[in-house]
Design brief:
four-stranded antiparallel β-sheet
């Protein structure tokens, strides 16, 4: 009897496990030797390859280096149902030393970051590099928890589910710790054209 049950349930478990794996990303490759995209107190510009979007963000804080952070990003191709990006652009600059909230305009998805360090405020200004995919619209949007959990901690934010995309962020800035906490705006995208220019 046990052999019969094993023969019946083993294929079901195998199929279920295989389907489960299709919906979640594996470990992220942040590049060769997990190199950082910047050095302390320097500007940087990071863009995903064409047709890819940001899916993971890693950062470490160093108070001795001007309360600055090292940054690294991972990209993955957007779902095939979105097609190719129809246009990409840099959003407006978010000033150093202030709190801010920004989403990619024109229903865009975050495909890069640009940042410049300002020693006078021990903080960075930020810009998102955004790409629009045809006339797809976001839905089921939500904010992640704070990254890092506390000012001055290391940060490792990953998109665990396929078909969810970063559309922007809101940040708080601590004048005491000279650091930021980020909440990322995450959305799904329609698989059909929608009539709205900006949602």
């Amino acid at each position: 009897m046990d052999l019969v049950l094993l023969c019946v349930f083993l294929p079901l478990v195998t199929v279920a496990w295989g389907q489960y794996g299709d919906y979640y990303y594996g470990p992220y490759n942040y590049g060769d030797n997990d190199e950082w995209v910047n050095v302390y107190r320097q500007g940087f510009n990071f863009q995903c390859p064409h047709g890819q979007v940001i899916v993971a963000i890693r950062s470490v804080f160093n108070k001795k280096e001007g309360s600055d952070r090292l940054w690294n990003y991972a990209c993955m191709p957007a779902a095939q149902s979105l097609g190719e990006p129809t246009e990409c652009w840099w959003e407006e600059i978010n000033r150093a030393g202030t709190e801010w909230y920004q989403t990619c305009s024109n229903n865009g998805l975050v495909a890069g970051f640009q940042s410049q360090y300002f020693p006078s405020v021990l903080d960075r200004e930020w810009q998102f590099y955004c790409c629009r995919y045809s006339r797809r619209c976001p839905y089921s949007c939500w904010l992640t928890t704070e990254h890092p959990g506390h000012y001055g901690e290391d940060m490792d934010m990953m998109m665990y589910t396929y078909d969810h995309y970063i559309r922007g962020a809101t940040t708080t800035f601590s004048a005491v710790d000279r650091d930021r906490q980020w909440k990322f705006i995450v959305c799904r995208m329609t698989e059909y054209d929608c009539p709205f220019q900006n949602v």
